[in-house]
Amino acid sequence: MSEPFRIGISDDFYTEAAGPLEHVLARKLSNVPGVEWEKLRTDGGKFVSAGSLKKYDAVFALAAAIHEESLLGAERLAVVARWGVGYDRIDVPALTQAGVALTITPAAVRRPVAEAILTLIFALSKNLLAQDRVARAGGWRGELPKMGISIGGRTLGSVGCGNIGQELFRVAGSLGFGRFLACDPNVPQERVRQLGVEMVDMETLFRESDFVTVNTLLNAQTRGLVREEHFRLMKPSAFFINTARGPVVEHAGLVRALRENWIAGAGIDVYPVEPPPKDDPLFGMDHVILAPHALAWTNELMIDNGSEACDAVLAVARGEIPNGVVNREVLDGAAFQAKLARWRG
């Protein structure tokens, strides 16, 4: 049809993913007839305001929130393509009600996040921050406050064993860990047996793991899932790592566990509020490694995220069902099917 397929790109891309964004758009979209895109302005880069989506058929979302009111007047919108796998800032039921598919990019994310987790495991186990401080101060190894540890024979645990958790165990399979433990009510033992993973309950995972990692999405069921009582179960020599979402963890419980040395340390890439307040107690702790929710961010991650998201949007532009749909119940709905039919050749 003569009218172009229009894509809105949330404006936080232009501050947080500039460079890779333009490269992907040029490579994937520039030579596609009838496809146009432009910056979608949000309220402070955080929220897509009411009425701002009404001229778009698709939206690329990085971190901007899309709520029910964002969809007012957005009758032609068919797909929101999230660059990443977390969608806690997007009102999925509202999208479904409006006949809009939500897609994510699991293939692009799994390996970079697994590498980020292993980066923290090695940095914590080798006492990297203290090594750096001593060396910079002109000191030498005898001045280190403690020795590092080997990961050989240690137990690696994961709260959540989906896309990223399974990739973590896959990549870690040759590193010499003694056991792999995971807790995930949605993953049966049979699915991960070949990875050498034992499915256990939360208490067993926290009690027996030397490294506890969080690899679950944030939703109503997982908010506050990891609590003070779980940290009390951990070994004093164990480390806690969260690269998933901050609100999955009870922050006060984590702070207390670290402050009172219930555990040996932590690696934290995500926070209850992002960016975190400057008086967050974690900033003053020497046995905690912190990152600004960017440890998995590489040029390759952004390019792969963009390619996967573009493929989903282009499928809709051809009148086809995209890959990576979260709210699959929308696919057979009359509203979504009518939008596909509009673009079907």
Descriptive notes:
The mean pLDDT is 95. The protein is an alpha/beta fold and 345 residues long. α2 runs parallel beside α11. It folds into 2 domains: 5-104 and 298-343, NAD(P)-binding Rossmann-like Domain (Rossmann fold, 3-Layer(aba) Sandwich); 110-290, NAD(P)-binding Rossmann-like Domain (Rossmann fold). The chain contains 12 helices and 12 strands.
Report a brief summary of the structure.
The chain is an alpha/beta fold and 345 residues long. It has helices at residues 13-16, 20-29, 92-97, 106-125, 128-136, 163-172, 189-192, 202-208, 228-233, 251-259, 299-317, 334-343; strands at residues 5-10, 35-40, 58-61, 79-82, 101-103, 155-159, 179-183, 197-199, 211-214, 239-242, 265-268, 288-290.
